[in-house]
Design brief:
- This protein is of the alpha/beta class and 333 residues long.
- It has two domains: 171 residues, Thiolase/Chalcone synthase (Peroxisomal Thiolase, Chain A, domain 1), CATH 3.40.47.10; 147 residues, 3-Layer(aba) Sandwich (Peroxisomal Thiolase, Chain A, domain 1).
- It is 30% helix and 24% strand.
- The chain has ten helices and 13 strands.
Length: 333
């Protein structure tokens, strides 16, 4: 047997039905549709409604469709990793809950938290399980219910986020159409610029922490933008250079959907035209770990077997990274 690589052999996504528009946000905070679109590129985002519905529900919908689409039986799944920063509970993990919802028994499952870069971290972790030769089918989920941690009185952050989930199936392959290369990095300086202060061991939930707003997402937007626009572009260019790729070689850039200016800056540094960049931020906003798999899902029918695809992301922590994939299958057109 030759060297075993990990190939993406299926992709699905799920977004809730409820659409939160910029016009609706105008009634909630001091903002405007034009201001939001000009600075972020977002027109609307999806919000999960319903008592008791959380991130596990989002992930379950995406994985259920993935099993059906790839004709995979629950008992064939060897493992499931869920990238999320909005877990259903601290424990059991959201991955455990997704498996239970879909009767996936005996598979390893765990959550991974790397904010908006979480899907890339989880994809590389899953690929390494496949590369050992011990696992044959590993599912990677990116899912976040960001509406559960957003402060809808904060006009700087509530405009940015939506809820959603995406999932991919990884299987072994000995040909060249696999995950070819990965760069993932972090820098703890980000702890001062983007965080949720309450709910952990330092500031466990109390009436005081709730009153102080410690359980809402906080972001120093200017500082995060400065780091993001450089780091995401730099790492995407780095992975191209070490694989001898130029802009013409790249079929698609699949970037994290945080801000149109960051997406455009990354494409410009890579010398990739915007026609080859997957963008859905206008209708989903920033769904954190779900943005990249949602883009893969929506653009799947445009990919061709053997296409060079670059994934790139930046998130809280700070975390950032890029993955180079040669697409493994020809989707039905």
């Amino acid at each position: 047997m030759g060297n075993i690589g990990a190939a993406i052999t299926g992709v699905t996504g799920y977004v809730p039905d409820y659409v939160l528009t910029n016009k609706e946000l105008e009634k909630m905070v001091d903002t405007s549709d034009e201001w939001i679109r000009t600075r972020t590129g977002i027109s609307e985002r999806r919000i999960l409604k319903g008592e008791g519905l959380g991130t596990a529900y989002l992930g379950t919908q995406a994985v259920k469709e993935l099993l059906e689409k790839t004709d995979t039986k629950p008992e064939e799944v060897d493992g499931l990793i869920c990238a999320t920063v909005t877990p259903e509970m601290f424990f059991p993990s959201t991955a455990n809950m997704i498996c239970d919802n879909l009767d996936i028994k005996g598979a390893f499952s765990f959550d991974l938290a790397a904010a908006c870069t979480g899907f890339l971290y989880a994809l590389e972790a899953g690929a390494n399980f496949i590369r050992t030769g011990n696992q044959k089918k590993v599912i990677i989920v990116g899912a976040d219910k960001m509406s559960s941690i957003v402060n809808y009185n904060d006009r700087n952050t509530c405009i940015l986020f939506g809820d959603g989930a995406g999932a991919v199936l990884l299987e072994p392959s000995e040909d060249e159409n696999i995950i070819k290369d990965t760069i993932i990095r972090s820098d703890g300086v980000g702890k001062d610029f983007i965080y949720i202060k309450g709910g952990g061991s330092a500031y466990p939930p109390t009436h005081e922490t709730v009153d102080l707003g410690y359980h809402h997402f906080y972001q120093d937007g200017r500082s995060v933008f400065k780091y993001a626009v450089k780091s995401m572009a730099d790492v995407a260019v780095e992975i191209m250079e070490r694989n001898n790729l130029n802009g013409d070689d790249v079929a698609y850039l699949v970037p994290h959907q945080a801000n149109m200016r960051i997406i455009e800056a990354t494409a410009n540094r890579m010398e990739v035209s915007m026609e080859k960049v997957t963008v859905n931020i206008q209708k989903y906003g920033n769904t954190t770990a779900a943005t990249i798999p949602l883009c893969l899902w929506e653009w799947e029918d445009k990919f061709n077997k053997g296409d060079n695809i670059i994934l790139a992301a930046f998130g809280g922590g700070f975390t950032w990274g890029s993955i180079y994939i040669k697409w493994a299958y020809q989707p039905p057109k």
